[in-house]
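From the pipeline queue, job 12 of 40. The input is one protein chain; the requested action is below.

Action: predict structure.
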Amino acid sequence: MAKSLHSICRWTFNAGKGGFVPADIRPDWAGGRFGTPEMIQLVADRIRPRLPRNVVLGIEMHYDAEVDDGNAAEVADALVDNKLYLAMITPGAHSHFAYGGIASLDKNERKAAEDLGTRTVNLAYGTLRKAWHPDVAPAFVIWNGSFGYDIATVGIRQMYQNLKESVAGLCKYEAKKGGKLHIGFEPKPNEGHPAMLIPTVASALLFWRKIEEEFGVSRKNKGVNKEFGHSEMIGLDHIYDTVEELDNDMTVHMHLNSQGYNDGIILGGPGKYDIDHGARINGMNIAIAGLIQKAGYSRWKGHDMQARAYDNTEQAIDRVVRSVLSWEACEKAAKELKTRDLLKALAQRETAAAEDMMRAAVVNAQMYFDQMYAG
């Protein structure tokens, strides 16, 4: 059976989000007692044994919140010792910069944010290099959480220009280090600002083309970390997002989470806040699984998700297992779907028959999930 690469996010394993919900419901995962090396060990000991043998696991983390120069050696050792891999690293700019980050009109903030990015590249090629998968380089994801604004002014265009210049500089710096990382934008329409630069997948695709035209940065290994839930938040079609990414050869990473509204069970969706459920079994995900299979996508599939505010530690771990198994079930159902018959039905306008085929695929996926979950 072909290997299937899934990546687990360090930030999923928190003691509680706080704010309107408890900050201490999972005390085992609190503060200094539970760092990134401990999280890696937990994934190896309590999640990997519950997954199919063809699943290969990687870890995603923020610099400098979850990995930094102080703990990187221990993190790298934990990954190597447990045969896990660095799947994705991202500069945690949103933790430091509230006025645009590398797009900021404040020169001091912009410079500090750029330095954070280059230090992240240095760490990936330095201490963490031994934890790369031998065949699949990590993604370097740029989340747009700090690239936002809340005042309508002509300054927004200069922010966009700053963003292009800074990202071009980062890409040229990374190329000198080796040019192996797959650099992707993770679009989002809002959070942490009411309005964001690079809000959609289409925005990210256009951005990379502009970078190439204006600064000579090759689009090779550049693209999008498409998070399903971010498209759902504003009512966009994440299936079509996938088509656009594949058509432009810019699928460098993906986050399989969901806002939940599309399965008729979990509430959420357009107009709601970012809920970050795990992957769900539904027709949309089976369609996306079929698209990436046909395109030969073989990179990391990330699970950027949060435990529910009422989950204890065991339930939170189980959520991650369910997310991975749900996607594996969708992939299996997509692979067994008779695509030729489906396309024939659509060509003949037999759309009810096409619906029946997709509904049967959902039923099959749930059956596969049940079998894998039972062990």
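Job complete. The chain has a mean pLDDT of 96.
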